[in-house]
Amino acid sequence: MTKTTDRAALDEWYAVETAADIGPGPVSTRLLGQDILVSRGPAGIIVREAPAGPPLPVREKYGCVWTTLGTPRRDIFDIAQALEIDRRFVPCGWVTMRASGLRVVENFLDMAHFPFVHADILGSEPHTEVPGYLSEIRRDVDEVWATNCTFFQPRIAATESDGAFVQLTYRVPMPFVVMLYRVCPTAPDRLDAIALFIQPIEEDLCRAQPVMYLVDTASTRTSLLHFEQVIFLQDRIIVENQRPLLLPMEPRREIPTRADSSSIAYRRWLKEKGLRFGTIAGAG
Known about the structure:
By secondary structure, this protein is α+β, with helices and mostly antiparallel strands.
């Protein structure tokens, strides 16, 4: 595949590597069908189109290298919790998936699969019903939010072994980024923040890294990584077996339920943006 012509996709920022992993030797990867090279020079990290294109815009944020193949209309979104110095920052590593990155976002938003895919961790039977919640496109910030979400989880965090109904908030600040805020078990007046940064490689191939900003002084780094990686690898099995691999934008292709309110808002938002990369409309 060659670089997409989808301007809505090109004019966004994307996390493409973990900043700490970049040395002087170039790292080769792909973004939106385009080969790119990432390296560290005397003045900082350099990203360019391969084999010898001009330098691309670069930002270092949230432990990652961000770049764009176009001209973004706005800067990378803010995560307020990233500025709180007592939080633990836990990047969880990149996982490659044979699916559209947009499918990965929708899977992250979907609470209904918790009891079946993440049994005895994020969900369990008979607690399978998704209570009603509010989904909206926030026009002032151009983001999708799902609020007032509640769900019973047998293990609400790596530090906890007892189940409880948890309060969750979902946020989609960019088409290929999705976030979860949950009430911190050890500090009920604060929210843990988990972000998923997705690098769309091809229409039907992506990789993603969860990063966490946690109020947690008890867990080892290994236990935090294991908890998140187990969940994410369970999700990969589901995402890679969805058909079609690309995201349908025609409402009649997949029948939504009440639990899919956030997905409906997300797809409407993508259509308003005219984004085609990773969708059936784009492939056609």
